[in-house]
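the two lines:
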Amino acid sequence: MNDGKGITATVAFALCCLLSSARLVVDAPNPKHPPGNIARQSDQRFSALKAALPERGVVGYVGEPGTPALADYYLAQYALAPLVVDLSPNYPLVIGNFPTTPTGSTSNDLQLIRDFGGGVLLYANRTSGKDNK
Amino acid sequence: MAIALPALLCLASGFLLIPLAWPRRSPNVPDHLFQLSLSVGYGLGIYSIVFFLLRLLGGTQLVLVDLGVFAFLLVTFYLFRNRRTIVNVPPVAETMRDRPAWLPGVLTASFAVALCAALYSAVMRTLAYPHGDGWDAFSIWNLHARFLFRGGPHWRDGFTPLLPWSHPDYPLLLPAAIAHFWSYLGNDAPAVPAIIGLLFTFGTVGLMFSALSILRGRNPALLGTTALLATPSFIELGTSQYADVPLSFFILAAISLLCLHGDQRHNGFSHGSPGMLVLAGVAASCAAWTKNEGLLFLCAIVLSYLFVLLHDKATTKSWISRARPLAPLLAATVPAVLLIAGFKHFIAPPGDLLSDPAATLQKLLDPARYWAILRWYIKGFFLFGRWLLLPGTLLLLGLYFAGGKAGSDKSNAAIRTSLLTLALTLAGYFAVYLITPYDIYWHLRFSLTRLFLQLWPAAIFLFFLLLRYSPKASVQPGSVSK
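prediction for all of em together
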């Protein structure tokens, strides 16, 4: 690779790399206006509920339907760890997470214990046979 | 200040461990940079395992145990530091030296610009996404770290079959390393996983630059590292708090250590020194303790090295004698393999990959799945990395065909082993897609780019190792001393 073609290729390679470096700079987010800090927001949303729940064990979960709402469930589990949040209403204590439809669950088995605001609710399941632990 | 002690312990422990097996003496800065970069990953790996074992045994005196481990490494270092056989390695003759005088300046400037751009992007992303960017950060890695830290004696609650989506069977290097730091801080500060992400990202950059500098000189090192720094997805993924870049760090470490072992300047010496192979085994072990793909990589590197050793046509030794150099590498992986096997068997619920043998067999016999994966592999080869205008893979191909071509080092056993390892790992990923229990297109869409990025630093490293840049003057054997 001692000829002019090799040198040209080396310089062209470096320049093409720098084009992508420019993309990195242009696409860098502005920390003052983050596109969506969902995990931090979720920790804040669930902080009051977390204080009202047992420190460990398993609680149930009901949320909005559809695959996109799965992220809400994952975020609830992240915020409430080390409590295990099972995607099922069959527990004595059930968390309701309805960020966009704050009316909550319509199930007759779930009795609202407390509304924490922002679509975060805590229910008691009157028919559940499962233990919280 | 609470963070200073574990940070210091991690770095110092790596520094103590590496020289024990490092058989080179060189005044070169790249040697020191390589060991420094390696120390970061090894230190995090060591204390991740220490933290996990402490949780497993119900221990609570973390600081005492950490100091005990450090004292053990310190004593071992002082006992064995003078017993090592050292090879005095001459610095590599500067390659590309018959180039115009302005070329090194251009390459240095390109590298500096790429480094500044990558640092700027990484810092901005870390500040903007303190909890990571993407689902896997909070639904897998940081969630496991929270269970290990917040769960206290009940940390196993997080590794329950009730949360299959969090992949409780995934190895714990990253979560346990994060929880280790959180335990010193007393809270789960998001800065910890963010900083660990930055350390692995720029540690990989340090490894790449130093390893290529040692083996091929400064200019190929500048070019190769610029290519890595300019891969947008690599920097973005590194600051997303996923485990793919830490895995790429350990894969590059294992491959580069293997190639350092095979460095022709060690002729007549390296086969007698297990040091580099032990360190390569430790790196492969850390890869396996980072992600399940790392386990695949560990198997691939062992099998590849065995294959290359057994097919060495230059020797007439028995197959046992030929396979003997594998022993140090294999021995270094045993503790990690036992640890991972214990974790998978006794703590983690079964993974979802082989949950239905009948369905798995049916998928293996479906040619449409092979074709689908092959198409995605080809498409991914050109598209991964989010390069602007020209994909990085095409740029490398262009450089190759413009006159680089493969050099004589193709015959080097370490390089052949490394190439075979990457090929086997890619084949392993292919097999996993074949039998995946998820929708194959969904799985390919959300993971293939990350899998390619795991191997990308090692691929760039091997590419510049093979490129015909090195004059023969650079492969003179070194002298051995005690």
